[in-house]
């Protein structure tokens, strides 16, 4: 992942107990909206605005100072996509883009959990949810928030979870220790990309990983051209993610364009 951690979104001295902060609850199901709202109130929340669709949630998040987003995610495409909602929130250049967020999900597949993480969400709780689950997660994401990252392809809390004291960038530490080279690390990242997209059962995104692996397989070093090609592939993956759920022909044209462009660059 490119980009460096920015300053934590909110200084510790400015944080209040989440129970006193506004909470925007986005849940398409009326039953689950009431159930989650009751759980939040039971856990101590005092200011809850409940909506049933993403546009309303985004509007309230942009209009409400220091709000927290809680988004419900069901295992039904027609009920909306909480990961997409969080990703759209993170694209906001104002304070709302830095807001703490929690997804309450009925989707238990690893691929869905990865999508939630990559959307920029702070925390994920799986249903069925107990009040203590809400309390623990909201306490963690407000009081011990991870550094916030803003980059070309990702906005959100740092995804690199690691024990205290360990090196922040393991690949960089391995390179510095002489255990690998920059080009070998880049190739490993390409193959990890392929495996991740295969788990997500997204063959078009998997093609992006394979394209990057082909571009790097004959390179002797990670020079400016290889760095540009890598950045281009990451940008393409981000665009495919933004078009999650779009018709296959739309997403396929993006991958076709990437492969044509990289073929010209390799031939230059």
Description:
The protein is α/β, with parallel strands linked by helices and 268 residues long. The protein has two domains: 12-157, Response regulator (Rossmann fold, 3-Layer(aba) Sandwich), CATH 3.40.50; 170-267, no CATH class. The chain is 50% helix and 11% strand. Helix 3 links the parallel strand 3 (68-73) and strand 4.
Brief account:
By secondary structure, this protein is of the alpha/beta class. The protein has helices spanning 30-43, 54-63, 82-90, 110-119, 131-143, 170-176, 182-199, 203-217, 224-242, 248-267, and strands spanning 23-26, 48-51, 68-73, 101-105, 123-126, 148-150, 155-157.
Topology summary:
Elements: E1 23-26, H1 30-43, E2 48-51, H2 54-63, E3 68-73, H3 82-90, E4 101-105, H4 110-119, E5 123-126, H5 131-143, E6 148-150, E7 155-157, H6 170-176, H7 182-199, H8 203-217, H9 224-242, H10 248-267
Parallel strand pairs: 1-2, 1-3, 3-4, 4-5
Antiparallel strand pairs: 6-7
Helix pairs in contact: 1-5, 2-3, 3-4, 7-8, 8-9, 8-10, 9-10
Give helix and strand order, one letter per element, not per position. EHEHEHEHEHEEHHHHH
The strand line-up of the biggest sheet is 2-1-3-4-5
Low-confidence residue ranges: 7-14, 162-169
CATH fold title of the largest domain: Rossmann fold
CATH architecture of the largest domain: 3-Layer(aba) Sandwich
**Main beta sheet strand tally, sense and closure:** 5 strands, parallel
Strand content: 5-15%
List keywords for this structure.
elongated, 268 residues, two-stranded antiparallel sheet, alpha/beta, five-stranded parallel beta sheet, Rossmann fold, 7 strands
């Amino acid at each position: 992942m490119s980009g460096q951690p920015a300053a934590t979104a909110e200084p510790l001295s400015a944080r209040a107990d989440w129970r006193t902060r506004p909470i925007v609850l986005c849940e398409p199901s009326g039953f689950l909206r009431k159930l989650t709202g009751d759980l939040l109130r039971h856990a101590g929340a005092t200011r809850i605005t409940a909506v049933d669709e993403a546009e309303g949630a985004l509007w309230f998040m942009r209009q409400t100072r220091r709000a927290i987003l809680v988004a419900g995610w069901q295992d039904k495409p027609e009920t909306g996509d909480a990961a997409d909602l969080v990703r759209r929130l993170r694209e906001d250049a104002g304070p709302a883009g830095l807001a703490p967020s929690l997804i309450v999900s009925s989707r238990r597949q690893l691929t869905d959990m990865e999508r939630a993480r990559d959307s920029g969400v702070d925390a994920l709780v799986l249903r069925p949810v107990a009040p203590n689950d809400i309390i623990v997660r909201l306490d963690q994401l407000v009081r011990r928030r991870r550094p916030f990252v803003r980059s070309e392809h990702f906005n959100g809390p740092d995804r690199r979870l690691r024990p205290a004291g360990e090196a922040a960038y393991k690949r960089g530490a391995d390179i510095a220790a002489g255990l690998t080279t920059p080009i070998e690390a880049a190739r490993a990242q390409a193959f990890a990309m392929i495996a991740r997209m295969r788990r997500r059962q997204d063959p078009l995104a998997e093609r992006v990983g394979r394209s990057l692996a082909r571009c790097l397989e004959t390179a002797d070093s990670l020079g400016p051209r290889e760095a540009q090609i890598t950045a281009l592939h990451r940008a393409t993956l981000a665009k495919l993610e933004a078009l999650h759920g779009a018709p296959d022909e739309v997403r396929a044209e993006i991958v076709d364009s990437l492969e044509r462009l990289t073929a010209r660059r390799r031939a230059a």
